[in-house]
Amino acid sequence: MATIRDWSNFIGGRTALVTGSGAGVGRAIAVQMSRAGAEVWVNDLVLERAEDTVREIESEGGKAHPVVADVCDHDSVAAMARETGPLEIVVNNAGTGVRSWTEGVRMVPFVESGPEDWDPLIRVNLAGVLHVTRAYLADMIERRWGRVLMIVSDAGRKGERKQAVYGAAKAAAMGFARGLAAEVGRDGVTVNCISLGSMKHAGLADAVNQDPELEARLSRAYPVGRLGRVEDPAPLAVLLCSDAAEWITGQVYPVDGGYFPSL
C-alpha cells in the first residue's frame, strides 16, 4: 500500500469528526486525519468500537475522543454536537450498504421490496448526512472556514441492480452536497463527496474468505484488478479537508479502481 511521505501537519490544528469511524473506511479516515495533524472525534453507535479507534490513534501519538451518537436521530446528533463543540471538519461516513453479505439488509429487486427495506437505507445514507451537517454548519459559516465531506457510492453514480433505493439515497447525498456547496462557498466552507466501489471489509471480507473465487469474480469489474481497501480513500479525504483544497467544492471524486469512470 502506498504511504504518504510526510503529511504530519497537513491539517494540523484542525478539529474533525468522522461518523461511523469505529471500523472500516471511517476508521481509516480518522487515523489518517490524525496522522495529518487533526484532533479527531471518533463517532460510532457502539462506544467500544469508537474507543478502539481512539486507542489506535493515541498509540501513534495523536489526539482523539470517542463520541456515541445515532446519526439518524436528530436529538442524538444534537447531543453529540454539544459534547464535541464546534468543529472545522465533518466527514459523513456512517452508512448502510445493500450487498447480500450485509447483515440485516435484503438484496432484492425493487418490486419485491417495501418501506421496511427502504426506510433504514434512506435514514442513514441521506437523513443522517443532513442531521450531522446541519449540527455543525452554522459554526463553520460563522468562522468562515469549514470542510464537509460525504462518503457515497458508485451505486448512486452508475445505478446497480437490486440497489435502486440505496443508490437513490447516495445520489441524493451527492445532490445535497452540490446544492450546499453553492450555498456556502462564499462563506469559506467547501462540500465534496468521495464515491466508493466495493470495499473488502466486514461482510464482504468474510464472504471472500469463505469463497476465494468470489474476490476474483468481483475484481474483474475493476481496471486496477482488485477490490477496494479501507485505506484507499483516506489520503484524498485529508486533501479535500485541507487548505490546499479551498477551490474544490461541489465535486464527486471516485475512489473505485476505475469501476465507473467519470469521463
Q: Do you know the CATH topology?
A: Rossmann fold
Mean pLDDT across every amino acid position:
92
How many extended strands? 7
H/E series, N to C? Answer: EHEHEHEHEHEHHHE
CA radius of gyration is: 18 Å
Helix content: 40-55%
End-to-end separation: 26 Å
Please sum up the structure shown:
This protein has helices spanning 24-35, 47-59, 74-84, 115-143, 164-184, 202-210, 212-219, 234-240; strands at 15-18, 39-44, 64-68, 89-92, 146-153, 189-196, 252-255. With 263 residues, the chain is of the alpha/beta class. The mean pLDDT is 92.
Tell me what the structure shows:
It is a single chain. The chain contains eight helices and seven strands; from the N terminus they run βαβαβαβαβαβαααβ. The protein has a single domain, classed as NAD(P)-binding Rossmann-like Domain (Rossmann fold, 3-Layer(aba) Sandwich). It is an alpha/beta fold. It has a seven-stranded parallel beta sheet, sandwiched between helices. The model has no long low-confidence stretch (mean pLDDT 92). 42% of the residues lie in helices and 15% in strands. α1 crosses α8, α4 packs parallel to α5 and α6 crosses α7.
Summary tags:
263 residues, Rossmann fold, 8 helices, globular
Question: Any chance you could write out the topology, listing elements then pairs?
Answer:
Layout: E1 15-18, H1 24-35, E2 39-44, H2 47-59, E3 64-68, H3 74-84, E4 89-92, H4 115-143, E5 146-153, H5 164-184, E6 189-196, H6 202-210, H7 212-219, H8 234-240, E7 252-255
Parallel strand pairs: 1-2, 1-4, 2-3, 4-5, 5-6, 6-7
Helix pairs in contact: 1-8, 3-4, 4-5, 6-7
